[in-house]
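TICKET: design request
STATUS: open
ATTACHED STRUCTURE:
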């Protein structure tokens, strides 16, 4: 079985194990909610059918406790690292309650409930440790009840049923743990990739712009903000063709080229800053596609050529001039 134990570990939303813990909390809401209804019904049966008031009160208390678990899980009051422990506690309390009823009334169907709880442990828990604690606790509590029972052949049959339920629980748990382990690895890789991209985006000395094919600005790195002079709150409302490019046709030519080729290099255009200065920039752009192959954004790197152009213009008179020697004397 794959290990998904993280009891006591501080989990952040960026940690893939946090998502796994949230799945377990959803399982807690489902299992505790169902068991709360079952305990409430059994409370009524214990009193009206068997006349055992104390058992009815115990079941009412368990029902209230399970409803409290549901409420806490819904509100987010349970830390993700304690999710498996709470599910284990819920299932163990339910199993002990069923075994108490069986030892008192000897109703054989109670053993079927125990088997269902064991299967539920495999379905709701995503921790090897807590699965073993839960199943081990249930079997340890069932063993003395079965030993003291007078219906030995029946108890042997129920023992085989519990054994089959345990195997099924382990199979379900292994399949779910493997699935969530692979998901966790994928999320971890995605998170690391996003961190690398964000680091490159923030630290690049070139301007990096992310825009929609329609021309809306999605994001721009700090170098771009400094170069163009726009404030953070203004970025989302900018339209590249209208507010940045001096020639709308340049933006349209770039867009068409990206839609056709997905990559454009050394595209030179003039762009306007917030204070009206005109900059000449060279861009390299890539079309970003979604899982269906549709282009959803353009990633563009811009390099300022303005200073280089001015230097070339200043050097042209010197390059084109002719140096003549002074006339000789005599």
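STATUS: resolved
RESOLUTION: sequence designed for all positions
ATTACHED SEQUENCE:
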């Amino acid at each position: 079985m794959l290990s998904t134990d993280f009891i006591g570990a501080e989990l952040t939303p960026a940690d893939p194990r946090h998502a796994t813990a949230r799945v377990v909390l959803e399982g807690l809401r489902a299992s505790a909610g169902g068991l709360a209804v079952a305990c409430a019904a059994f409370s009524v049966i214990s009193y009206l059918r068997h006349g055992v008031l104390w058992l009815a009160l115990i079941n009412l208390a368990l029902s209230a406790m399970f409803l409290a678990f549901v409420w806490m899980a819904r509100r987010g009051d349970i830390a993700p690292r304690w999710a498996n422990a709470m599910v284990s506690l819920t299932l163990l309390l339910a199993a002990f309650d069923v075994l108490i009823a069986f030892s008192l009334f000897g109703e054989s169907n109670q053993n079927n409930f125990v088997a269902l709880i064991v299967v539920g442990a495999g379905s709701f828990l995503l921790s090897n440790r807590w699965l073993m604690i839960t199943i081990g606790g249930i079997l340890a509590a069932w063993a003395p009840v079965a030993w003291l029972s007078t219906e030995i052949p029946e108890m042997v049959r129920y023992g085989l049923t519990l054994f089959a339920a345990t195997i099924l629980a382990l199979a379900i748990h292994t399949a779910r743990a493997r699935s969530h382990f692979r998901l966790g690895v994928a999320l971890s890789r995605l998170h690391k990739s996003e961190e690398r991209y964000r680091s490159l985006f923030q630290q690049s000395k070139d301007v990096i712009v992310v825009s929609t094919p329609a021309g809306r600005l999605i994001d721009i790195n700090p170098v771009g903000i400094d170069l163009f002079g726009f404030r953070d709150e203004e970025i989302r409302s900018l339209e590249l063709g209208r507010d940045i490019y001096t020639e709308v046709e340049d933006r349209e030519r770039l867009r068409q080229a990206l839609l056709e080729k997905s990559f454009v290099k050394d595209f030179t255009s003039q762009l306007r800053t917030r204070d009206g200065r005109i900059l000449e920039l060279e861009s390299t752009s890539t079309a970003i596609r979604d899982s269906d192959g549709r282009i959803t954004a353009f990633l563009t790197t811009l390099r300022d050529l303005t200073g280089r152009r001015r230097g070339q213009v200043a050097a042209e008179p010197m390059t084109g001039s002719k140096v003549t020697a002074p006339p000789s004397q005599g």
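CLOSING REMARK: Confidence is low (pLDDT under 50) at residues 1-11, 310-315, 318-326. The longest strand covers residues 278-289.
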